[in-house]
């Protein structure tokens, strides 16, 4: 009994020492708080400048996205909207990179949110374009974890750049119709996404198609595509060829 009391007393004394006798070093907390305030002030100033510049150039979608983000700088959906809008109006990678660096502090979470939006929307180009520059294999792994299945892979060449590895993924299939479709194409050198697409559905010519079969050819409906260094497309119908 005596030993237990002594132990309890020692623990109590230790707690008191921690709470009262040893002052906490709050300098790190203060420094982080100051750094955060400075970061917010810097990005706010940048967004205000971007908004004014975009209004002057007639890029109203970018101006609206910047204004919306200023109201809640930490909202990931609003960050995605801005990055996507910047790509859509033609901003190149060197101009997009500062926003990628600022907003993608956890790239996996960013990718997951973009894919989550693409699952439920046929027209969310901004979420699609915001996958550009992310790690390709990571994007594919997260898509598969969310229920997508890989249906085809292909490789295409570029004139003065490394080849692009493209993985065609789908969430579900009814006969020869796969939907929705997400395509992730990444640079085989840097492993970064440079060509991404999304379609409501892929209708195959092969009436007898089964999971595991070659996709062959077909048609994509309500499709979007975003590329680096630039390029943004939306189509109602477009041909699909798993070998090209």
Task: Output the keywords.
disordered N terminus; alpha+beta; 26% strand; 244 residues; 6-stranded antiparallel β-sheet
What does this structure look like?
This protein is α+β, with helices and mostly antiparallel strands and 244 residues long. 47% of the residues lie in helices and 26% in strands. It has 8 helices and 6 strands; from the N terminus they run ααααααααββββββ. It has a 6-stranded antiparallel β-sheet. β2 and β3 form a beta hairpin. α2 runs antiparallel to α3 and α6 crosses α8. It is elongated. The termini are far apart.
Portion of residues in beta strands equals 25-35%
Biggest sheet, in brief? 6 strands, antiparallel
Distance between the termini: 81 Å
The succession of helices and strands, N to C, reads: HHHHHHHHEEEEEE
- Tell me the number of strands: 6
| Integer average pLDDT | 88
- What proportion of the residues is helical, as a percent range? 40-55%
Strand order of the largest sheet: 1-2-3-4-5-6
Which stretches are low in confidence, meaning pLDDT under 50 for 5 or more residues running?
1-22
- Overall spatial form: elongated
Helix/strand/pairing category = alpha+beta
Radius of gyration: 25 Å
Number of helices: 8
